[in-house]
Specification:
The protein contains 7 helices and 6 strands, in the order E-H-E-H-E-H-H-H-E-H-E-E-H. By secondary structure, it is α/β, with parallel strands linked by helices. The chain has one domain: Rossmann fold (3-Layer(aba) Sandwich). The termini are far apart.
Length: 219
């Protein structure tokens, strides 16, 4: 197999409501800062070539992918298999509320991160199986480098696989909002070239054409 690179990015920051919450497959739109981070990724990736874009079908991932795609005219392949871990009944609930209502379960998840699952949800082992099976099937269908717009948990799972780390250690890998990672896949092994790089978000966005027309008409 000819070596190629998988660009793995995390979507931009989301709108947070009333403190930290478990956000898995709950829809959480990008904040204005998250949009700026997506544009920063787009500008940084302009000098990098990729022939396909994969992303989760959750809004925060899909919107980030659309911003990055820009004028490349590449199709965006959105798949539920790339969604963040399913947190079941905990999804959207604050850390403080879960710790107060379910102290034993809260401790159990921290102690057994790989296999423990919340009611109605999945474990990281389940999520890893879902994500890796999908990628092993999907990636060979594309030529050249591929961009994947994922989530913190999903990205960490892929990076654990590339680094040969057990899933239990995935939280040791930083994945900040709007970050980029580069993994090269060769004939016999994967090599991580970039990890958790966040391009500066102070970027200028093109002015929408509709705004320009309005200004011209007002002159």
């Amino acid at each position: 197999m000819k070596p190629r690179q998988l660009y793995i990015v995390r979507h931009g920051a989301i709108i947070e409501v009333n403190g930290k919450r478990y956000i898995g497959q709950t829809e959480a739109p990008l904040s204005e800062h998250g949009v700026e981070q997506a544009w920063a990724l787009r500008n940084w990736l302009q000098s990098h070539d990729f022939t396909a874009i994969l992303c989760s079908d959750l809004t925060r991932s899909l919107r980030t992918a659309k911003i990055i795609a820009g004028a490349r005219r590449l199709p965006i392949h959105a798949h539920p298999e790339l969604r963040e871990i399913n947190l079941g009944e905990w999804d959207g609930v604050s850390f403080r509320e879960i710790e107060a209502k379910y102290p034993e379960e809260f401790k159990a998840r921290g102690a057994e991160l790989e296999h423990w699952k919340p009611p109605g949800g999945e474990s990281f082992a389940d999520c890893r199986k879902r994500v890796l099976e999908f990628l092993h099937h999907e990636l060979p269908q594309f030529e050249g480098n591929v961009l994947l717009v994922g989530h913190a948990g999903v990205n960490r799972i892929i990076l654990c696989e590339a680094l040969g780390l057990p899933t239990a250690n995935l939280m040791r890998i930083g994945q900040d909002y709007g970050c980029a990672n580069i993994v090269e896949f060769g004939p016999s092994r994967a090599r991580v070239h970039l990890l958790n790089f966040v391009p500066p978000s102070s970027v200028e966005r093109p002015e929408p054409a509709v705004t320009k027309r309005r200004r011209n008409s007002a002159q």
